[in-house]
Amino acid sequence: MEDNIKKIDPESKEFQEELKKTIKFTDKVIKQFGWEYNPDPEINQSIQFGLTRNKLIYGKRYCPCFFVTGNKEEDRICPCKPAIEKEIPQDGLCHCGIFCTPEYAQKHKKEEIIEEIVHTHSRGLNKEECELLLQKEQLDGDELEALIEARELGMIDFNLVDVREWMEYRAARIKGTDYLVPTTSFYQSLEQLNDQKDKPIILYCHVGSRSAYCQRVLKDLGFKHVGNLTYGIVSYPGEIERG
């Protein structure tokens, strides 16, 4: 089976010389389109290695995140047409992840700063950082605790919703929970929130599975932004109420 595997030695002189050319190529692409590199240097290095590998194997810098089929209509040569016309203009980032808009890069850098602050508790978040954190669709316990503290300070506003059952809610719930919307009576209980679709919502359950499902439902129902406590109440380090 190994006989069918194309082996390229990244330490070889041939590869290293071609890698230098690839880096010059991606630098040129960045300048030509006004893009930036992904703030994560490991992603950029990985894609540059992949482009170099494909250049040595196929003679062209095909996008390393896709198969090379030999079909000119399907095979993507970097920078590929979908990235130029759709992915970067719409998502801020190409599929392979190496190229992004300046706005995406700046937002990513801010998110890294927020993550460090939240998890090291080095200082409190400012209003802009809180608003950016509130936009995340998946939150961990530290992030939710920081948002609840910010809400108490009047910096942001959102609804915190427990989608577990009444008996679970009575046994233990996150302090600051605004609504109980059990999955067994979800649509009926949700009526109390129908006039608040523009207000951000954060959902939680026991371990994050029920709330993830409800998150998808609320999006389909037109709620503007719905976040989810990824690992549920069991991962929450903040204050818990009982009774």
Secondary structure class reads alpha/beta
CATH architecture of the largest domain: 3-Layer(aba) Sandwich
Fourth CATH level, the homologous superfamily of the largest domain: Rhodanese-like domain
Distance between the terminal alpha carbons, to the nearest Å? 62 Å
Biggest sheet: strand arrangement: 3-8-7-4-6
Question: How many strand units?
Answer: 9
Quaternary organisation:
single chain
**Rg calculated over all Cα atoms:** 23 Å
- Helicity range: 40-55%
Can you give a write-up of this model?
With 243 residues, the chain is of the alpha/beta class. The chain has 2 domains: 99 residues, Ferredoxin Thioredoxin Reductase; 136 residues, 3-Layer(aba) Sandwich (Oxidized Rhodanese, domain 1), CATH 3.40.250. 46% of the residues lie in helices and 10% in strands. The protein contains 9 helices and 9 strands. A 5-stranded parallel sheet has the order 3-8-7-4-6. A two-stranded antiparallel sheet has the order 1-2. Strands 5-9 form a two-stranded antiparallel ribbon. Helix 1 crosses helix 2, helix 4 packs across helix 5 and helix 5 crosses helix 6. It is elongated, with a radius of gyration of 23 Å. The protein starts with 12 loop residues before the first helix and ends with a strand.
